[in-house]
């Protein structure tokens, strides 16, 4: 009843937030994974192609024992056998150019005779192959050639794969005699790589979509359940608020209705008592008017979607509450005393704060059936106003004191037990508190704490 509960989805949508976040994360992971795996797949397929070419050329040179041409290029017999072996490369459909390098990096043979005798000192792939490692490199040939042996390739192809194949000595297996370099336009291999990469990206996209839909479905279901539970909770809170509102009305109407009943019983209708009857009628009218004001204030509060807070002067409100309860205090011989001075304004909702003060005063009066002093005081500390209400009743035990703020707990016969619970919840929403201090036979102190209203311009 005391405040409007914001709907679960008013400022935050779990499903929408998760959908956006998970989509970004999943797409990022899919792109990263797809790029890494496709690059690895391309590299492995190209290397496998280079290994096949290396086995072919090594077997070819081992068959006619012409590999030693790379060691002794001046030997005419070895040269002829080597040239006969290189003619077999023409049967391969993909090579664009083939070069043969000696162990010092000099080009001893090439399908482009103009390149024979050259040396390219800035060729890290060739240097790595001369150390015995198979090197497979792919790229595109532009207008500016990084390597001298690339000259002329741009007229035939832009994408190429070059394999640097180390040729080993027959009698000394770990000795590198030279390097055979093959330039290829891998049409079939490129098609196979493109198909594999395409399938990989389709799989990544499909997996990402399935993962996103699955997670979004789970979170969507959780979001629906949470919204349904929030709706049920809101309905439960609304019902609880209605009960609290009805209880608050009944709690505060009990004293004026008792006054009405007492006054009515004392009116016996005799002429001799007309003057006394007039006095009782005035009491009845005042009590009914007081009850009507309470009902009006509570109905106004119950229709408010949110309790607006503002500066409230407490001393005039205390005086108004004490004036309303004065007939009851007079009957029970309760003498009240209000601290001198003017306390600072507090941040509160005036009608609801008035109901809380009336409830606290009514409890204090009921705690003193034989009468006694009732003192109201205050002091300011660290931006808070502490208000003390001290009665001279019999007090309560520690066990009862701890239970007094629980809903529906009451020490009075027929009491609803919601006044203090309602007050505590309301004050907590305003940033305040209410506490009760008591000792058996030594009275009770109720302390209300509220934030001090800021001054204008501060």
UniProtKB/TrEMBL annotation:
Q: Which residues form the Histidine kinase domain?
A: 248-454
One GO MF term: kinase activity
Which UniProt keywords are listed?
ATP-binding, Kinase, Membrane, Nucleotide-binding, Phosphoprotein, Transferase, Transmembrane, Transmembrane helix, Two-component regulatory system
Q: Which Gene3D superfamilies match?
A: 1.10.287.130, Histidine kinase-like ATPase, C-terminal domain
What broad class of enzyme is this?
transferase
Q: Which residues cross the membrane?
A: 18-37, 198-219
Return any one Pfam family short name. Answer: HisKA
Q: Which reaction does it catalyse?
A: ATP + protein L-histidine = ADP + protein N-phospho-L-histidine
- The name this protein carries in UniProt is histidine kinase
